[in-house]
């Protein structure tokens, strides 16, 4: 049994073999590390760059490193993917800090969404073929890497004729925006939706999808009238405060939305249908990617720092 030298938290047993690791580390299998120069010549041929996060859980400290890992062999239902681009979202940062609703079993690679291109498929793969673009079916896949071998069911294909930034940012924020517009109130063309943080990735998608549905959006508010207030993020990490008079006299309803829970409550086919609906809007020019700044994977530190800066309104996209 090993314990973190900084905070005393228990480490997975693999880290007791290597005294360099004083914190829990994502994506780090000692067997996969290129430790010696003699190893390097053999392993580098099969290695992929991969962005790893070392997290000291009690200190909430985020310490990311680029590492080379071995690429697994492509088995029957496996898909070899070359990652093309992956955003840095608040949930990625929250996950690394250990304060997200879904924490992957360690070790793991950072990044929950992104787009990749299929390089090769195993003999029993039927849903995708080399050249197809794919995005993660669920959070926790680890998209901040140059290449990976995933199982077929971990991926869904998207059209490769949409812009790269749209594909890389399609699977989380536009899906969240679309579901919130569909699932909480029966909205009809001409109805209004009020949102705060409207310059966020989700907010930009809400504005565009609402417009495509004939809904009006009010994007800066101070007083909220009645209706349903859907909370989907907590950037300030503060409780939501609601006016008692609005709750009583206007029957204000407070609800929450989490895309990962929606996916658990719905079938993979329903998620694919949602993705195709959004791709349709992209094809028609009604949905574009949020404002983005591209950074090569190697510049991840600058990109992650930039992603946490206030008042920037530009999503960092790691390109591979
Ligand atoms: N429930 C779900 O399924 C779901 C799905 C997707 C996203 N989310 C959540 O939605 C939120 C937005 O995600 P995103 O990718 O759209 O983010 P984003 O593009 O990175 O934008 C972040 C937004 O948060 C604002 N912000 C940052 N710090 C703040 C603070 N301390 N107080 C108030 N506002 C602050 C920013 O405003 P400034 O530009 O003024 O700094 C910006 O509008 C995150 O909390 C994310 O986890 C939830």
Structure notes:
The strands form 5 sheets. Strands 6, 7, 8, 9, 10, 15 and 16 form a 7-stranded mixed β-sheet that branches. A 3-stranded antiparallel β-sheet has the order 3-4-5. It is α+β, with helices and mostly antiparallel strands and 320 residues long. It starts with a strand and ends with a strand. Helix 4 crosses helix 5 (201-212). The chain has 9 helices and 16 strands. Mean pLDDT is 82; it is low at 1-47 and 55-61. It binds NADP nicotinamide-adenine-dinucleotide phosphate. Residues 89-91, 172-173, 176, 197, 199-202, 232-236, 257-259, 290, 310-313, 315 line the site of NADP nicotinamide-adenine-dinucleotide phosphate. Residues 61-318 form the Enoyl reductase (ER) domain. Its EC number is 1.3.1.104.
Distance between the termini: 37 Å
Number of distinct helices = 9
Largest sheet composition: 7 strands, mixed
Quantity of strands, as a count:
16
For the structure shown, list the relevant keywords:
GroES-like_sf, Quinone Oxidoreductase, Chain A, domain 1, globular, 9 helices, NAD(P)-bd_dom_sf, 320 residues, 16 strands, mitochondrion, disordered N terminus, alpha+beta, lipid biosynthesis, binds NADP nicotinamide-adenine-dinucleotide phosphate
């Amino acid at each position: 049994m090993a314990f973190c030298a900084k905070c005393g938290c228990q480490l997975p047993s693999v880290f007791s073999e290597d005294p360099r690791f004083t914190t829990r580390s994502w994506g780090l299998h000692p067997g996969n590390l290129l430790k010696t120069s003699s190893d390097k010549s053999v392993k580098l041929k099969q290695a992929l760059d991969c962005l790893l996060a070392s997290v000291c859980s009690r200190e909430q400290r985020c310490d990311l490193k680029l590492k080379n890992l071995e690429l697994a062999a492509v088995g029957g239902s496996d898909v070899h993917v070359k990652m093309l681009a992956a955003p840095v979202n608040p949930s990625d940062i929250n996950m690394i800090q250990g304060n997200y609703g879904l924490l992957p079993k360690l070790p793991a690679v950072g990044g929950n969404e992104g787009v990749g291109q299929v390089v090769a498929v195993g003999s029993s793969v039927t849903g995708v073929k080399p050249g197809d673009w794919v995005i993660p079916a669920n959070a926790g896949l680890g998209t901040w890497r140059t290449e990976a071998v995933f199982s077929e069911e971990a991926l869904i294909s998207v059209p490769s004729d949409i812009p790269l930034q749209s594909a890389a940012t399609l699977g989380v924020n536009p899906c969240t925006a679309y579901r919130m517009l569909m699932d909480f109130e029966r909205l009809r063309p001409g109805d209004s939706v009020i949102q705060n943080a409207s310059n966020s990735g989700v907010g930009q998608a809400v504005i565009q999808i609402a417009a495509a549905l004939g809904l009006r959006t009010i994007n800066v508010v101070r007083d909220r009238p009645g209706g349903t207030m859907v909370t989907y993020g907590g950037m300030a990490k503060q409780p939501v405060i609601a006016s008692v008079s609005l709750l009583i006299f206007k029957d204000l309803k407070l609800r929450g939305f989490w895309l990962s829970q929606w996916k658990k409550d719905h079938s993979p086919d329903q998620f694919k249908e949602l993705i195709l609906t959004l791709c349709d809007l992209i094809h028609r020019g009604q949905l574009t990617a949020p404002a983005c700044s591209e950074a090569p994977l190697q510049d991840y530190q600058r990109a992650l720092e930039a992603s946490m800066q206030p008042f920037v309104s530009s999503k960092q996209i790691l390109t591979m």
